[in-house]
Amino acid sequence: xxxxxxxxxxxxxxxxxxxxxxxxxxxxxxxxxxxxxxxxxxxxxxxxxxxxxxxxxxxxxxxxxxxxxxxxxxxxxxxxxxxxxxxxxxxxxxxxxxxxxxxxxxxxxxxxxxxxxxxxxxxxxxxxxxxxxxxxxxxxxxxxxxxxxxxxxxxxxxxxxxxxxxxxxxxxxxxxxxxxxxxxxxxxxxxxxxxxxxxxxxxxxxxxxxxxxxxxxxxxxxxxxxxxxxxxxxxxxxxxxxxxxxxxxxxxxxxxxxxxx
Length: 261
Known about the structure:
Blueprint: H1 2-52, H2 56-69, H3 74-87, H4 90-103, H5 109-125, H6 129-142, H7 147-159, H8 163-176, H9 181-192, H10 197-209, H11 215-227, H12 231-238, H13 244-260
Helix pairs in contact: 1-2, 2-3, 3-4, 3-5, 4-5, 5-6, 5-7, 6-7, 7-8, 8-9, 9-10, 9-11, 10-11, 11-12, 12-13
């Protein structure tokens, strides 16, 4: 009996040691898993900084490394699409964004909208305007408060000369980000291209007087003045950014408007 108890005790001790060993393995595995997750998070944060900082190539390198182990990760596929859009490699952007779209059935509304917006932007850049518009309209339904989405949708309308719809989209973008010169410029251009130069001037000229303008806004403002027949005002504004040869070329173009009045 004593011998049986001894054997039982030894068996119990052995089991305890074995259990302890297994627990130790599990703890070690858990620690490694946590360390790997922390490293992945840190790398992704570095990629995000690179992307925002205008270094998409660095972001792409990180995202592609992570994608090797997570080929169906919707966020990674989307971020790669964003990065390739920034580099101008729009076919690659479409490749990863389309893969993200296939995988996004369980994704949140925000993610689906972001994917559609980036798809639309890539197609805009490639000249597929009609399909871009469809994607951007779907994105706008998902993200009605996304200024970036509404602005891109406005561009798609403007490229198809649907200026009224374009202006509505640009106004929606400005309602979210009223300080954006890009959106303000696009809204003004939506009036100028529709042959309403004074409305474009009304939008751009106050910012110009405050010294808050860009090359794009100044050149569009100059065009608006030229369309009204005020060539001197157009010349004064345009020459701030143009070489002498460029200015002469623009003046010849402006004078065509003057002759039509």
